[in-house]
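Teaching note: in complex prediction, the entire set of molecules is handled at once rather than each chain in isolation. The prompt given to students was simply: 'Predict the structure of this complex.' The entities are:
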Amino acid sequence: MTDSPARRVSGKLALFIVLIAGALIALFPFYWMIVTSLKTSLEVYRYPPTWLPNPIAWSNYPDAFAKVNGRVFFNSAFFAITIVVLQGLVTTMGGFAFARINFPYRNFFFILYLSTLMIPPQVTLIPTFLVVVRLGWIDSYQGLIVPILAQGAFGTFLFRQFFLRLPNEMYEAARLDGANYWQQFWKFTLPLSRPVITAYAIITFLTAWKMYLWPVIVVRSDDLKVLPMVIAELSANTSQDRGVMMAAVGLSVLPILILYLVAQRWFIEGIAMTGQKG
Amino acid sequence: MQLSVTESELAGLETSRFWRRSRNQIKEKKDWNAALWALLFLGPNLILFLIFTAYPVGYGLYISLYNYSILKPKEWVGLENYDTFIHDPKTPDLIWRSIYYAVGTTIPVVVLPLIVAVLLSNAGVATRPLRMIYILPIVTSPVAAAAVWKWLYAKDFGLINYGLSLVGVSPVDWLYSLRWSMPAVILMSIWLLIPFNIILYTAGLQEVPGDLYDAAAVDGASSFQQFRSVTVPMITPTIFFVFLITMINVLVGAFDVINVLTQGGPLQSTNVLIYDIYKNAFENFRMGYASAQAYALFLAVLIITLINWVLQKRWVHYS
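The expected output is the structure of the full assembly:
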């Protein structure tokens, strides 16, 4: 079979048509969210729908910010950042132990810990809720945050894989100099792990920012609500103006969108890193 | 040190035994020391694991044997919750819908991103900008995405029905139709989960040596033949990994999507097992029964995982 130039060109053309069609599908909900968020309540319900808002209803955004207000943003940011920092500490330490400390039955414990990833979250959801009730942590930041810190198996795995690939000679030299494990961990393991820490931080922040099920179970008062909870409530309220609602969705997506545009490389590398075999 | 070793060798059996023992003692002391350090490093992990993973796994099994509502004192019922679940006339439908949702979401979400990743890698200068667009949906939470899709699916003012009306299809009430609500939920879930897997496949494809394609091209293999006989066999470990991750993501994400789009309706038509567990536990306060359901789910996931591990030996090739 010969590959004639004409055939090759038409093949490339077909490839681009397919790829652009797919890209439009990926992009379309974003386009519609933005367009709707800038329509007046009159134009939102116009049929056939208009492709661009006219006039542009900027006021939807201040109206939306009255719903997803600073407090909600603060809660989401506080929730996500606290989890990134505390779980980061827990999982880097755990990863170091599994990679660099030769303790008895290490591999057995590691596999056991890793296998907890396969437990469906629904299994631990109810008893974890009851534990939080007994601790008196319902409707509190600690109730919201601490149980999520326990979901560190994946992070521990990620850090272990990275620490295993650091040069052995370095650790031998440090041991000869009399550096204990903590010094090895703190003085050069962590500083050398910036790429994996960044990747971990972005993925964990993203996961926490999107989280809905656990907050919906633990949080009762408005003061503690995170973004997905408020978005879900607005969406369920049929009398809520759709333009304002889309503006609220847009506001909730905006911080991550900016993060994605600025640090796109780390998003991709971070997720790609999870797929590396050890 | 060296001198004393030589001495001990000269001194015969007794001393050599002494040395061996003391060396073992040093090793034991070292192991003990390492274990102590490991405990220090793993301490926070261990405490969190015991309180929020290990204990709940056991406690969940325990309360599945009770008639347990947070509002009333618990009452021992043995295996009755499991019995009720198995014999409930609604259960077969519930399980069928769960399989429908899980398979209907998982297969496209494992297959489509592979095709997209391969096509993207052949797009030359357009690869990077197009990939960036394809991956964009990872910035949205399932809740935010579902809120937008709910509006796209709306019967009277929704864009999907408008698009269909242009080609002569009469409007469908997607989220309130017994027939179309589940496909609508699945379609949105697919849109949501594809980007993550595109990234995983893209990384996997980069590890396929380029000369394999050159060799295939020299042999006159078409693009599709190269895909089938070079790409797919070379990335079977990635495909397997993507499958496992997707299974977890479907279990985690389905609640958010269903809760915003349909809340399990209309008439249970999008009520899958994980959603039913939530409703029983936190709306109907039947926590014992919900725990029994969760354990049935656990068993199913365990069986699927085991089957996967057995089957993967046949089709996954690690280089």
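Point out the following to students. Chain B has two domains: 2-63, 81-315. The radius of gyration of chain B is 28 Å.
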